[in-house]
Amino acid sequence: MSIFLRIWGAFAIVLLMGAYITVSSLQQQVKPSVKKAIEDTLADNANLLSVLLVDDIKQQRLTQPEFNQKIKTVLARQLQAHIWDYQKSTISQQLYITDDKGIVLFDSRGVAVGQDYSQWNDVYLTLQGRYGVRTTRSNLQDENSSVMYVAAPIKDGQRIIGVVTLSKEGKVMQPFIQKAQQDMVKRGVIVAVIALLLSALVAWWLRHAIYLVAQYALSLAPQQRQPLHFWAANELNQLVAAINKMRQELEGKRYIENYVHTLTHELKSPLTAIKASAELLQDELSSKQRMQFSTNITQQTDKLQLLIERLLLLARLEQQQHLQTQPVDLSVLVNKVIEQKQPQIQQRQIHLLNDLAHSVMVMGEAFWLEQAISNVLDNAIEFTPQGKRITVKLSQHQQQVTLIIENQGQAIPDYALPRVFERYYSLPRPDSQHKSTGLGLTLVQEVMALHQGQVSIHNNDDGVSVALIFVHR
Prior knowledge:
Blueprint (H helix, E strand, L loop, with lengths): L2 H50 L1 H5 L6 H11 L2 E6 L2 E5 L2 E7 L4 E4 L13 H7 L5 E5 L8 E11 L2 E11 H50 L14 H48 L5 H33 L6 E4 H11 L1 H6 L3 E6 L4 E4 L1 H17 L6 E9 L2 E9 L31 H11 L3 E6 L3 E9 L2
Parallel strand pairs: 9-11
Antiparallel strand pairs: 1-2, 3-4, 3-7, 5-6, 6-7, 8-10, 11-12, 12-14, 13-14
Helix pairs in contact: 1-5, 5-6, 6-7, 7-11, 8-10, 10-11
């Protein structure tokens, strides 16, 4: 089961259980609430009637046909009351009146006149000066047959001379109760559906966020992507930060392991040569042989020193996540590097053609750009035979700046072209069989990647051409 279904299912179960419990609880509160409202109304009406009936009791009018007819006329009155969505057409109340002994003097239903109601709670409590109310079922087995009775005292001064009781059948309240319960269920269902949709949206967002974090973790590579950031989701941001930290630690570990392994491999050859030359120098040798082995030790030591310097420089570059960029005049920087290489150029009697556009600006870090240009020019000098030519061209076209360094000489073999930027891969120099550290072009590629540019190398008619391309963004 997918995490989306798990999260949404958990949301749905909790939500539906909560909605069911809440709606059921509210429905159970509907009936008491309606009864309370009805009782409040009956109490008001009973007390109003009690004041109006004082003279009728004192004058003994309750037994006269005129009084009975008046009450019947009132109770039979047709109404046109539109109460919310309920149409009320008749009066649903009944009443009876007792004397101060609890004997029924008048009954709107005409069935209880003369009966003793002094023991019914409504009359009994009212005659004692307390609030009189009762609910009685006409059918003990039927809950809906209950009738609510609310009484009020009829007073002559401070003396209770009678009791008036108003009654209302429970079935009259039932439509209001059912309507309220039905509305509750409908609204509960609507709220539940909306909440389920919102919870599905939240679950999908969580699933999508987790998917993005997983893809981010799978696709991470040095300088490949900016860290993900989720709005109002600190836990996910902490997870991304933890993945980043873990990646950096793992990369650092792999980086060290790789460097230790490759450095050991690269150091083995010159160290072996130095050891062999040192052992031979312990024997009786001619001056020429001693000079030869001493020169070999010096050359191998220089190679070791250059290898270590290049490795340290490359390690520093690869650990640098961001550049401290500023405008750099590339034409000035290229001229500076050429000036530094003049001794080697003159020693090899190389002709250098300088075709630089004036004041070509790029955004970058001058130190690393100088290292990249220096490495490319070193390669060009080493692979250019004595008396041949190196051409340096710098041009700008719209947003693109291109630096091309071409040298006459032997072309790069086809099998080597795809591998020239690999770490430690190197070809023998034309004037000797020794190889370089194999780190120069690797460093150039790293520098260009850090500057959002690219480097390419290919053979031309006279030799080899290396292009450094910068794009302004």
